[in-house]
Structure formats: C-alpha cells, structure tokens
Design a protein that fits this description.
With about 675 residues, this protein is mainly beta.
C-alpha cells in the first residue's frame, strides 16, 4: 500500500520525512525481489490498516487497485483479483497453499490479522510458481519469520483494540527470540465480534469469535544448513453466512420447503491446522530449499431453519492436504539467476452430510446423504524460471508442467450413485515471460505475457446436491482445466518520496468452468438442474493505478480500478464483476506525536449484470461514496515500552447506506455494509 509506506496509517509505520521505503516481495518470483524491479503488478498490504479490530484479512483489499472483496457475511470475505474470485486465485500462508472446497465463507479468513507481518498480492497469471488456480494471481499471508543474531536478543509486540459498530474486542501478542543458532517466534491472537450495526440497525448473525496460535522456529545447524519448523492453528466459532439466507416459498427461495421458513448456512466451528518442516542448504553456489507439510481445514456446515429452530442439514468435512516442495536457487554466470523446483500435493475430502427429510423433518443422523465420498485431487509439478539481467533490462521467463489427477469413490447419493468414470488426469503447461527496463528510478516500463490454468475442484467434479441459487447442481468428473492467456503492460517508479504504478491488462479464459442450466428437473427435489460444464470463453480487460506523493508537509495518495468482463458464450457481462472505483487520501505523517489521514472511496454504479447465467439472480447496484478518518499518536519509547502508538479509525463517517456489488444474497435483499464506526487500537513493543 503506497500511502501506508509513506504516511503510515498506524504508529509503527509513520515517518517524519515521508520517506518511501523499498517494498520487497517473496511471492512474485519465489525469492526476495524489489517490487519496482518486478515485471508484474504487486501489492503489499499492511495488517495495521485493517478498518476494524475484528476485521478478517479480506477487509484489507477494499479500495486497492485491481482488488475487491466478495462477501456472504462479516467473516466470509473472499479476495477478488481483477474480477476473478476464490476459485481462480491461490491463497497461501507462508508460501503453503490453503486448499478447501468451501461452499460459503473465505479461506483467507483462517488466520488472524494480529499474527501477520504483511500480505503480498501478485496479480495476473502465477501458475509457473503456484500451479493450479493461479489465473487471477496469488495472495500470500506472511507471518513473522525467525531470524538469527550475533548476540541473544528478544522482543515482544502486542496490540489490543475494539470497535463500536460490531462491539468487537481483539488482542494479539508476538514474542521473538534470536541468537547465533536459534530463531523463535511464538504468537497468539483472539477476537470476538457481535452483530454489526448498519444504518438500518443491527445486522443479525454477523458476529463471530476466533483465536489463532503460531509457533515458528529456525535452527542454524551449520553455516550452510538451516532447519525450520512452522506450526499454526486457527479456530472460528459461531460463524454465520447471512448472504446465504433463503425463505421457502418466496422469490429466490432456492426450492426450500415453505414449512422450513428462512434457512441460513452457518459454521458452529471450523479450524485450520498447519505443520511444516523445512530445510535450507547452501550447495554448489546456490540454495537448496525443501519443505514437507500437512494442512487440515475442518468445517462444520449447517443449514439452520428458523421455523424448526435448529439445523436440518448437518455436514462435517476435513480437507486434508499433504504436500512437499523442493527448490534450488542459483546464480549462473553474471546475468542469470536460475530458480528450479518441484511440488507435489494431495488433497482429500470426505463430507459427512445428514439431511432431515419431509414431511416431519425429524432429526435423522442414521442415513448419510453425502454429495460425494472419498474425493481426492493430487498434483505433481516441475518448473524452471530464469531472471536475466541485460544492462538496465530485466527479463523473467518461466515454464511449468503439471499433472493433476482427480478421483472419488462415489458421486452423489441415493439408490443409484455413480461409482465409475470418476477419475481423470490432466497434463498442463504454464508459462510466463516478463520484461522491465529501468530508464531511471522513476521510469520503469514493463510488459508481462503469461498462461495459467485451473483444474476443477472437488465440488465441480463430484458434488451432486441442491445449492442456495435454487438449482440442483450436478458435478462433472470429466471437466477440462480452465486455461488463461494474459497480457499486462505497465509503468512504475519511485523517487524515494513519491511512488506510482499504472497497469493495463487483458485476460482470456478458455474452457471456463461454470454451471449450465439444462432445462431438466431433478427427480428427487424437483429443482431445475445445473450441470457443471466447460463453457466457451471469458474475456477480462482493465486499467488500474496508484499514486502517493508529498504535498508540503502532507502526503496525498490515490488509486483507481476499471474492469470490463464478458461471458462470450452467453453474450453478456461476466457475473459479479466489480464496478469501477476511485480512492483519494490525504494526511500528515509523524515519527513521533500526532498523525492523521483522511480518505474517500468513490464506487460507480454497476449496471453490467449477468441475467442469463444467473437466471436473474444478479441485480444492479447503485454507486456510493464513503469517507474514513484515521487519527493517531506515536509515543515513541514510553516507560518499559520501546515503542507505543494509539490509533483511532473512524469508518463510514457519514453513515452511508449501501452494499458492495459482490455482496451475496437474494437479489435486492443483500445485507448492508457496516455503518459509522470507531475502532481504537493500542500497539506496543518491548
């Protein structure tokens, strides 16, 4: 975030002379690189800039160039990159992909902001480094890394906060220890949020609670070898998805029997657990890095009936991913930096679902009605990437081959489930070629051309079940992967006090995976059938940019995003495309003492909606404008604290009534965004 780097919306990032520090990314190329010298659009998001003490990670994306958020509630906020949603981007935690086939919610929310160091967002095709799903890009949630020091040293940082709209409380603490041979990071965070207030009053079922634990350790075995350990656990409780609410017998009722009243999906409990062991070894003039990991995402998904006053659908599932990565980074001669690697992961899922049956809907946990049984997807990939320095020009070229296989024991349930023809293997080739030329620090034009792919997920392959859009969805195990071709042309630069980025992009996705209305009805439920198929083509094009610069003792910043996306098969706009928007900010930094920043976000009307594809389920949304104000005080050292700051964030100052275009819900009944709120946070370090 440009403004954060110059101004600092929180105490720890403020600077008295508005000096812009270099931004380093490890996600764009797979190793540390300056974002200015990277021939691709990259955003670095600071957790301190979250709008609320209990905001999930998705809250950082609003207003940033090329980024948006798709939400079905306060917790379920999915990042959207250049119009591509959760299925078409890769979410990583410390470089480890998070796999889940979730119907609701956001896998990016399975980590507390209080334990994050930063969020790196690489926009555009990144399948060369991250494989399947990276059509729109990659989002890497990065926690503090253990480091070594010449002499033993330790430090602790902590934060406590609260906000008024959701009556939230949050807290986080991170302890760091370093010595010549040991590096340790231990952290914990928790938050509790009530139903938030909109301009129309409290929005029911938007509260939740969560906690996170983090332990990272590094051991310098020798000057050439380092061992690493990364353990994480996150748990959410009482999460509801109000955007999923449907009322039986009413328009948009999704075929729900009227005697159930309003039905809403919820997650009483869900967890993410990661265990990763790694090794770095200096050999033959390069660095060999390897990791093995297991990550489990456990979710309870329930369908709550307001009439029955209980859940009538109960679904428990663990998506477990076992994986390994191996990479070798080595300079070759004076102009090449070679990065070669291999990756393997295997994801399994076996949902256990029980559905109470009409007419009495008596609770029944004896007959299992799972949408599929023992599904698995595994991928093995090999890649090579070369960074070539030709004077003031840097070329980055990459190539990757993946073999992806999906299979399941059973598709559907009932008297005649499908048990054969469920396996499919795909071979895919991804590539990228980027070039950036440094005429000066302030003038760095670049171009990037690449191809990425997305293999079908478990639900698209194997799930046969009713969904909240009013259709009975039939999976297709023989789906071909989506394949994208993207071109990005951009310009970026920095002078040390100002920074700008500008990019134009074009993406074509072939064999786009989506549900196709068949005109048939499901014999059991009577719902119309949508069969998952490869469609013709989707085309997305857009412009985005950002600027931050000093104005006397102040700092001004601005961002903009413009997107146009089309579904060529249905000859209509692509469903749920973010509208154009602008953001302007102005403030005054301070290394010590008082600092402030005000911003306004202007979002255009979205009248380009998909009527055929959504069967009338996407409505136009009005434009809106919001204003926010950040006030803070940097205390510097205070007593036992080496650094302390107090932040006040005032959001939606004028209590505007609006909802984002990507808010899920029955057309015309989407939940409103939070109203005016004050969030306070105290941060300290000792």
């Amino acid at each position: 975030m440009l403004a954060a780097a110059m101004l600092g919306q929180s105490g720890p990032s403020a600077a008295s002379d508005a000096t812009l520090l270099p931004e380093i990314t490890v996600t764009a190329r797979g190793y540390e690189a300056d974002t200015i010298a990277t021939p691709q659009s990259v955003e670095i998001l600071a957790p301190a800039n979250a709008p609320s003490a209990a905001a999930p990670v998705g809250g950082l994306f609003r207003g940033e160039p090329g980024l948006a958020v798709q939400s079905d509630g306060a917790w379920g906020q999915n990042p959207v990159l250049r119009g591509l949603k959760k299925e078409s981007i890769v979410i990583l935690v410390d470089g480890v992909r998070v796999n889940s086939a979730q119907p609701q919610g956001a896998i990016a929310s399975f980590l507390d902001l209080g334990l994050l160091d930063r969020v790196e967002v690489v926009k555009g095709p990144t399948s060369v480094l991250y494989g399947s799903g990276a059509l729109g890009g990659a989002v890497n949630l990065i926690t503090p890394e253990p480091v070594f020091s010449d002499a033993p040293a330790q430090s602790t940082r902590f934060s406590v906060g609260g906000s008024s709209a959701d009556q939230a409380l949050s807290g986080a603490a991170l302890y760091r220890y370093s010595s010549p041979h040991h590096g340790l990071v231990i952290g914990g965070a928790a938050r509790d949020a009530d139903d938030y207030r909109s301009p129309d009053g409290r929005v029911p079922r938007t509260g939740y609670s969560s906690d996170s634990l983090l332990a990272r350790y590094a051991f310098a075995w020798s000057t050439e070898t380092t061992l690493k350990l990364n353990l994480q656990r996150h748990e959410d409780r009482d999460v509801w998805y109000p955007g999923s609410a449907r009322t039986g017998g009413q328009p948009g009722g999704a075929g729900i029997p009227p005697m159930l009243g309003t039905v809403t999906l919820r997650s009483p409990r869900q967890t993410r657990e990661l265990a990763e062991i790694g090794l770095d070894h200096e050999v033959l003039g390069g660095t060999l890095s390897g990791t093995i990991y297991r990550q489990e995402v456990y979710r309870q998904i329930r369908a709550w009936s307001d009439v029955l006053n209980r859940d009538y659908v109960r679904n428990d599932v663990t998506f477990a991913t076992d994986g390994a990565r191996l990479g070798y980074l080595r300079p070759v001669g004076e102009i090449h930096l070679l990065n070669v690697g291999a990756e393997f992961w295997r994801m399994t899922g076996d949902p256990e679902r029980y559905i109470d049956q009409p007419p009495a809907f008596e609770q029944d946990n004896t007959v299992r009605r799972s949408p599929f049984r023992n599904g698995e997807i595994e991928t093995a990939g090999f890649f090579v990437q070369d960074e070539i320095l030709l004077g003031a020009t840097t070329l980055v070229a990459g190539l990757r081959f993946d073999r992806t296989r999906g299979d399941a024991d059973q598709k559907g349930f009932g008297p005649a489930p499908q048990t054969t023809g469920l396996g499919k293997t795909d071979n895919t080739l991804s590539w990228s070629l980027g070039a950036i030329h440094a005429f000066s620090d302030t003038l760095n034009p670049y171009v990037n051309l690449g191809s990425a792919y997305r293999a079908a997920d478990m639900r698209e392959r194997f799930e046969d079940s009713a969904r909240g859009d009013g259709f009975f969805h039939v999976g297709n195990p023989q789906l071909d992967p989506e394949r994208s071709t993207s071109l990005e042309i951009g310009l970026k630069g920095t002078s040390g006090v100002f920074d700008y980025r500008l990019a134009a992009f074009y993406t074509r996705i072939d064999d786009y995976i989506a549900g196709r209305i068949t005109g048939e009805n499901h014999p059991g439920s009577g719902l119309p059938i949508k069969r998952t198929e490869n469609l013709d083509r989707v085309v997305i094009r857009g412009l985005e940019g950002a600027l931050a610069m000093p104005v006397g003792a102040f700092v001004a910043d601005a961002t903009f995003t413009w997107l146009r996306a089309d579904n060529r098969q249905d000859d209509e706009p692509l469903a749920e495309t973010p509208p154009p928007e602008l953001r302007f900010g102005f403030g005054q930094p301070a290394e010590r003492g008082f600092y402030w920043r005000a911003q306004t976000r202007l979002v255009a009307r979205q009248d380009r909606v998909a009527t055929k594809f959504t069967n009338g389920g996407e409505d136009e949304t009005s434009g809106f404008a919001t204003a926010d104000l950040n006030l803070g005080w940097n205390f510097g050292s205070a007593g036992a604290l080496k650094q302390a700051s107090l932040d006040l964030n005032l959001t939606n100052l004028f209590d505007r009534r609006y909802h984002e275009h990507l808010t899920q819900g029955v057309s015309g009944q989407e939940i409103l965004a939070p109203g005016r709120s004050i969030a306070a946070q105290f941060t300290g370090r000792f």
